[in-house]
Design brief:
616 residues; alpha+beta; Glutamine Phosphoribosylpyrophosphate, subunit 1, domain 1; Rossmann fold; six-stranded antiparallel beta sheet
Length: 616
């Protein structure tokens, strides 16, 4: 696991020097505290480097790594779980290896397969390869977007990096992208290919770039496909168990201490159960407890740990203190208005004291329809089929004028069709951004409607489910959940692996029959794990990593009051201070606008902490 950065250019677009590359790498030292490597050739129009968190071949796997004659060079962030099989195939084809690191597979795979090489990889990755013979630069990001990769689209050298702050260190002017800002305040994250900054974009999941002096070729080498599966729930449960077990086993490869996050819920407990079957020695598990009983799940995690005999570690956090807010703002190069980032960072820092690698349960809800709306919205749509269209139209018309709790009216008005229902779910029914932003500054192009339309190809008889699953897998998963886990874990120099996001398992889950995702919380996963998990886990409903943001905005927390001032709001572009204070007053009076206020707070703090210091 590492952080990478680099620059490429011809002619007038000369790349930087060793000092510039050093600055780009220095700001991501947390991603790779064990070593640094740079590739700064004298004659080639490229520079690139990596900060390394050594996991495989600790002594011999430093980067960059080259092929036999030095004509192909790679820097890389991630893990290739099938590297041993690929190594054997490539050796049989005549390639010579000098290390035991999975990184070295990439240079020889490039020699053998060129730009189609990502199709052969099973893992999480973002890497750049320079081929000096072809004078070509090749970049690729893993299928699900587990690992981040940012690139520039400016009139100058082409830069790339694992974190957007490296690009700011390279001199990119942090001019905000109007359309991206609109999407952030709608969704609470920045959907690919957008980043917060004009001229900086994210390489989409499952995508590669081949760049030469004359052109940039973008290739989508993987995407979700709609191939409905048939068969009994028992057959699917058996297949799920086999595939998840194989995925977990592949993700246990490590030359350093390894553990698992454990909440006591179905997903993380399933992973711990499978690991415990595979290992003789006790597994290190890590959970977080909260002093507020309404949010504390530590008892459930403790029960699972005792059941499987793990070496359990538990940290208790006072969420009311919000001590981690400033660190989250500082570490996250793009603001993420997901309050769960705070406990995720706390847990990552705690686990990193004992292990370098953890397995985590992200992805199961997105594959198996684990959120409330997969079950409830279709039922509500059927119920409201008997209601005249005029009633829905009226609800939509009066909703903007309702003084409090207008999320309910918006929800009802969205139920008339799948399109608006998906848009409503994606927004989590918070206050629309045009109620508190200076709307004249916000672009109407490339908004959430565009993202929703991108799921049209998945529409079939299971219309809502396939499209909502597709939306969550394509956008919510990489740009909220996986970004949160990557930034939090790497801030603590900890590698997080996600067994539910093996790409073959994703395709399997996406195409399961709808009835196995309804009428019972992740029923097929419970069926798959029923002989391994304690009954207490199987009988629990979903309980996310909750954070009391609503309560925070009804109190005088320093982390809130120090940023949500008239002075800061006035100095923050896009935000309309008077509207923000009206929403805050309504929240104190009983409405629930906690997440909307959290979006605003996070953006304001990020703008003043990250953007302004880099302004030219």
């Amino acid at each position: 696991m590492c952080g990478i950065a680099g620059a490429f250019g011809f002619g007038d677009h000369e790349v930087g020097d060793d000092d510039q590359l050093g600055a780009m790498l220095d700001c991501i030292t947390h991603r790779g505290p064990d070593s640094e490597g740079r590739f700064v050739p004298t004659n080639d129009p490229v520079i690139m480097g990596a900060r390394r968190l050594s996991i495989m071949d600790v002594e011999g796997g430093d980067q960059p790594i080259t092929n036999e004659d030095g004509s192909v060079t790679v820097v890389y962030n991630g893990e290739i779980y099938n590297h041993a099989e690929l190594r054997e195939e490539l050796t049989n084809q005549g390639h010579e290896f000098r290390t035991e690191a999975d990184t070295e597979v990439l240079v020889h795979l490039w020699e053998e397969h060129g730009h189609s090489m990502p199709e052969y990889l099973d893992g999480m990755f973002a890497f750049s390869i320079w081929d000096s013979d072809q004078e070509a630069l090749f970049l690729a990001r893993d299928r699900l977007g587990i690992k981040p990769l940012y690139v520039t689209e400016t009139d100058g050298p082409f830069f790339w990096a694992s974190e957007v702050k490296s690009l700011l260190e390279a001199g990119i002017d942090p001019v905000l992208d109007d359309s991206a800002v609109r999407n952030y305040f709608t969704l609470r994250y920045w959907p690919w290919p957008q980043s917060p900054f004009d001229g900086v974009r994210k390489v989409p999941p499952g995508t590669s770039l081949l760049i030469t002096e004359n052109e940039t070729e973008e290739h989508r080498y993987w995407d979700l496909s709609s191939n409905p599966r048939t068969g009994s729930i028992n057959r699917h449960a058996t297949d799920l168990r086999e595939m998840l077990s194989a995925s977990v086993e592949r993700r246990l490869m490590s030359d350093v201490p390894l553990g698992a996050f454990l909440s006591g819920g179905l997903d993380s407990s399933s992973i711990v159960a499978l690991i415990s079957e595979m290992r003789d020695e006790p597994l290190d598990t890590f959970s977080i407890g909260f002093e507020d009983d309404a949010f504390d799940e530590s008892d459930h995690a403790r029960h699972v740990a005792e059941y499987f005999g793990t070496n359990h570690h538990e940290i208790t956090v006072d969420l009311d203190s919000m001590d981690l807010f400033g660190e989250v703002v500082e570490r996250f190069g793009e603001p993420l208005a997901d309050p769960a980032a705070l406990p995720t960072l706390a847990l990552s820092k705690y686990a990193s004291e004992d292990v370098k690698v953890v397995l985590s349960g992200e992805g199961a809800d997105e594959l198996l329809g684990g959120y409330w709306y997969f079950d409830q919205i279709p039922k509500h749509q059927q119920m409201f089929d008997r209601v005249p269209d005029a009633a829905f139209k009226l609800a939509g018309q009066i909703e903007p004028y309702a003084p409090v709790r207008n999320q309910t009216l918006r929800y009802i008005s969205a139920l008339r069709n799948t399109e608006t229902a998906i848009e409503g779910v994606a927004q989590r029914f918070q206050i629309p951004s045009d109620r508190y932003l200076k709307s004249s500054k916000i672009s109407e192009e490339g908004g959430i409607e565009t993202l929703v339309r991108s799921t049209e190809s998945y529409a079939d008889t299971d219309d809502f489910y396939k499209r909502m699953l597709a939306f969550d897998i394509k956008y919510w998963l990489p740009d909220d959940l996986l970004y949160k886990v990557d930034q939090s874990s790497m801030a603590a120099s900890l590698e997080a692996r996600v067994p539910f996001l093996d790409h073959e398992l994703v395709e399997f889950g996406f195409n399961l029959p709808v009835e196995y995702k309804q009428d019972g919380y992740k029923r097929v996963l419970k069926r798959a794990m029923k002989d391994l998990l304690p009954k207490r886990v199987l009988q629990r409903n979903k309980h996310g990593l909750g954070v009391p943001v609503g309560d925070w905005f009804r109190s005088d927390h320093k982390a809130i009051t120090s940023w949500m001032t008239e002075q800061h709001l006035e100095a923050t572009p896009y935000v309309e201070p008077d509207s923000v204070f009206r929403i805050w007053d309504a929240h104190r009076s009983g409405a629930d606008y906690g997440l909307t206020l959290w979006k605003i707070l996070t953006f304001v703090a990020w703008y003043h902490t990250i953007v302004l210091p880099y302004r030219k």
